[in-house]
């Protein structure tokens, strides 16, 4: 009787929480965050001091007060404001173009039946295996024939569509858009373009926005193709303007890091406003793909 009463009065056993995260996981995540953020912080430290900071031992870990002086030199040496505007125009055009055109192509491959659809889609996928460097020479020859060398459209037009974007939107549209919905729209008299623009695209707009953001960032950071096709300083993008800050024999790291930090600021501001949406879109694609 006493054992029964003691058992009844004993506090109920609480199951161990299955969602408890081990401290080692936090330590590993903290280490990865540090490794990811430290290069940006070190760039800012060098940008606020001088080139000697990068070679000093022990290294400086605190920012200095020389940033505005070096930033002023950046704007004096190269037309950096114009380069920022050029990059903004090119990256925005490519981002919007990829969001619309890749969604349109993905809709065609996913929901329209036409001869050679699978073969064409296979060719599109195979182009992702070709290194981008191999397309530089034929692409430059095409731009030369069109008299587009040293123009911004030479940067915009080749980047309006990407094979990865077509593949991603085709997979996403195939999972989201039902054939019954399209058949119902056709019964109501909707054309193929109306079905895409009024039904399909609004449903896949978040994925298209994520694709556009990827296109914007890639176009903003692109160096090789703009370096080849652009000649005039007034048409430089930010990456080419940063290259123009460097001499042939030596590199002023403080000046170069100041230009790099100024070029990174727009991306940081963009990530602050759309970072959460970007992560949500990536996770959504990972679980639905």
Automatic annotation (TrEMBL):
Domain ABC transmembrane type-1: 84-274
Transmembrane segments: 24-44, 88-108, 120-142, 148-168, 195-217, 253-274
PROSITE patterns associated with the record: ABC_TM1 (PS50928)
Family to which this protein belongs: Belongs to the binding-protein-dependent transport system permease family.
Membrane topology per record: Multi-pass membrane protein
InterPro entries, sorted: MetI-like, MetI-like_sf
Subcellular locations according to the entry: Cell membrane
Keyword Oxidoreductase included in the entry's annotation: no
Lineage per the UniProt record: Bacteria, Bacillati, Actinomycetota, Actinomycetes, Micromonosporales
UniProt-recorded name of the protein: Sugar ABC transporter permease
Keyword annotations of the record: Cell membrane, Membrane, Transmembrane, Transmembrane helix, Transport
Keyword Transmembrane among UniProt keywords: yes
């Amino acid at each position: 009787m006493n054992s029964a009463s003691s058992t009844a009065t004993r506090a109920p056993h609480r199951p161990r929480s299955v969602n408890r995260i081990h401290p080692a996981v936090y330590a590993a995540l903290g280490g990865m965050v540090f490794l990811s953020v430290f290069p940006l912080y070190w760039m800012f430290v060098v940008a606020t001091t001088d080139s000697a900071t990068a070679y000093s031992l022990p290294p400086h870990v605190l920012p200095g007060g020389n940033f505005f002086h070096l930033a002023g030199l950046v704007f004096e040496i190269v037309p950096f404001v114009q380069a920022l505007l050029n990059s903004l125009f090119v990256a925005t055009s490519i981002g919007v173009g990829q969001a619309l055109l890749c969604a349109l192509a993905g809709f065609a491959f996913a929901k329209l039946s036409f001869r050679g659809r699978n073969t064409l889609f296979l060719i599109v996928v195979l182009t992702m295996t070709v290194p981008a460097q191999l397309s530089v020479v034929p692409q430059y020859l095409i731009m030369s024939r069109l008299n587009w060398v040293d123009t911004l459209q030479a940067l915009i037009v080749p980047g309006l569509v990407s094979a990865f974007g077509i593949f991603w939107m085709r997979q996403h549209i195939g999972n989201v858009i039902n054939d019954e919905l399209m058949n119902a729209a056709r019964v109501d008299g909707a054309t193929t373009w109306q079905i895409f623009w009024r039904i399909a695209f609004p449903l896949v707009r978040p994925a298209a926005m994520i694709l556009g953001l990827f296109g914007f960032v890639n176009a903003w950071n692109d160096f090789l193709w703009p370096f080849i096709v652009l000649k005039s300083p007034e048409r430089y993008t930010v990456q080419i303007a940063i290259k123009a800050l460097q001499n042939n024999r030596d590199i002023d790291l403080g000046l170069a890091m100041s230009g790099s930090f100024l070029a990174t600021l727009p991306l940081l501001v963009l990530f602050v406003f759309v970072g959460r949406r970007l992560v949500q879109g990536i996770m959504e694609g990972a679980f639905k793909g």
